[in-house]
UniProtKB/TrEMBL annotation:
One of its GO terms (biological process) is proteolysis. GO terms for molecular function: serine-type endopeptidase activity. Belongs to the peptidase S8 family. It comes from Archangium violaceum Cb vi76. Gene3D superfamilies: Peptidase S8/S53 domain. InterPro entries: Peptidase_S8/S53_dom, Peptidase_S8/S53_dom_sf. This is Peptidase S8/S53 domain-containing protein. It holds the Pfam family Peptidase_S8. Residues 2-168 form the Peptidase S8/S53 domain.
Amino acid sequence: MKLGIIDSGVDVGFLREHGIHLAGGARFTLDLGARVLETRSYDREELEAWRAGTSTVDLQDENGHGTAVLSILHDQVRPWPEVELYVARIFDQEVRAHSLCLVEALRWMLDEVGVDLLNLSLGTTYRALEAPMREVLERAVARGAIIACAAGGVPTLPAQLDSVVSVGDPALMEGLGTGVKVDHVVPHRQVKLYMGGRWCGDAPMTTSFACAVAVAGVLRDGCPPEWRRKQR
């Protein structure tokens, strides 16, 4: 199985400490002044050199969010399965990214790499790129990919799209906005995760982390049949 995470990158120290290897990675940035989308992809050999400390790549998680997502997967799926792990970094240190970077990261993950399971602990209210986003997601689902995305307090993309399994948590459901699509609710209010260089056993649950918990369930127990029905 190929597993993908689009987020803020990953902390190389976490990879080393927990014996995790990446099969591939990519960085997407947008230079608004020059109107240029910059993409840099990395193969397994380059990532192993980064992990060994003999090279650098632009995947280092400067915020901690992407590492926290990966840590939830690693903690909740034991033993860690034989998966090919791919990471795309679109966020900066403040967890900001242009929607165009998200669309291009989706294309890379789903069309070029062809991941089977994709974690999207993110969302945007910007709808101008809904059509190309919908196109790439529907194409992936047609070949059997499972795409889980954090739902928002208001309608967000890509969680609102029928091709995506949108995931919520109890706090979201208590104040759910009008028209928000939620396909799956993780009932827990706390989660164990790694952030800031250490493990935290009782971090508050968010929809972003709930999405990772849901993806961990697929890795551990298999895909719920109703998820596939909703994505046809």
